[in-house]
Amino acid sequence: MSASAHPDSTDLDRLHSAVKREKADLAPESQPTPMWAMFLFFLFAIIAGSQLGFYTGGWSFDVSNPFTVINGGGDPRPGGSGAGAALDPFALAMKKGASGYAVCGGCHQGNGGGLPGQFPPLAGSEWVSGGTERLIRITQHGLVGAISVKGQGYNTPGGMQPFGAAMSSQDLANVLTYVRNSWGNEATMITKEMVQKVRDEEKRATQWTEADLKPFADKNVPGEIPAGPGATAAPAAAAAPAAK
Ligand code: HEC
After folding, report:
1. Whose CA is nearest to atom 9 of ligand 1?
2. From the CB of 103, is ligand 1 less than 6 Å away?
3. Got the DSSP string for 60-115?
4. What is the model's pTM?
5. Is 4 domain-assigned?
6. Sorting pLDDT into bands at 50, 70 and 90, what band is 227?
7. What's the CA gap between 39 and 210, in Å, rounded?
8. For ligand 1, is residue 178 a contact (CB within 6 Å)?
9. What is the extent of the structural domain holding 212?
10. Beta-carbon contacts of residue 121 (< 8 Å; ≥ 6 apart)
């Protein structure tokens, strides 16, 4: 707009104040970025970002957390793998088994001590550190009737319920590894494959009894045990076959 656009106007003040209110035209070089350029930019950012994420191991906390660089790797949060290498299979099973044990702890107690006359102890129990086959079978299908644990008789009405349907083979393996290596117990770890093997073979509709389990008392389910602390502890059954 310029004064020549209003040749008839005599009120110069009004005309000029109108002109002064106008914003200057945008210079052609400061036009908004065209949509196609924005689109290309975001497309590039998404592709580049996903490539970066993919080739650096993905954005999991363990990979992407800033402490990894400082402490030499590992998850620095409480309960994390700490400074250093990833957990070995035994340590991992112990860690997961400790939380999975909450299912058992309501009866057998957090310290594995059980409740006198009601729930037998897992700490120091020959049922726990003995043959893995019997132990897996108990948790798979439950246990009922009179039993003896550490020389003490138990016969809780209803016995122990089966956990086969409620827990995965992996969860059960973790918990059993945990109870076999807590409160002074020391025995080989139980793997998911061992639990699965018993699960596949065992066809049973009722809870076990002590008599039915006798053939399995000292038997260990065959299977690979990952090298490490979980493989070194000799099962009590193997060390002292006469015990029971
Ligand atoms: C609702 C209570 C209850 C829960 C939960 C429970 N148990 Fe038991 N458990 C019992 C009872 C009762 C007996 C004894 C059964 C009998 O008298 O025949 C027993 C016996 C056992 C035995 C054999 C005896 C011994 O003390 O060593 C083992 C091993 C065992 N339980 C392991 C487990 C594990 C592992 C879990 C968790 C997955 C678990 N139990 C969860 C009640 C329970």
Report:
1. 160
2. yes
3. -HHHH-THHHHHTSS--STTS--SSSPPPHHHHHHHHHHHHTHHHHHHH-TTS--B
4. 0.68
5. no
6. confident
7. 72
8. no
9. 89-239
10. 108, 109, 112, 113, 114, 149, 150
Both 46 and 94 in a single domain? no
**Ligand 1 neighbour 154 (Cβ under 6 A):** yes
Is ligand 1 within 6 A of the CB of residue 128?
yes
Find tokens 């897992």 and name the residue.
122
Total domain count for the chain? Answer: 2
Higher model confidence: residue 194 or residue 9? Answer: 194
- Report the atom number in ligand 1 closest to the C-alpha of 179: 35
User: 3-state DSSP call for residue 147?
Assistant: strand
Distance 209 CA to ligand 1 centre (A): 12
From atom 31 of ligand 1, which residue's Cα is the shortest distance away? 160
What pLDDT, on the 0 to 100 scale, is given for residue 190? 96
In-domain check, residue 3 = no
**Ligand 1 contacts CB of residue 106 (under 6 A):** yes
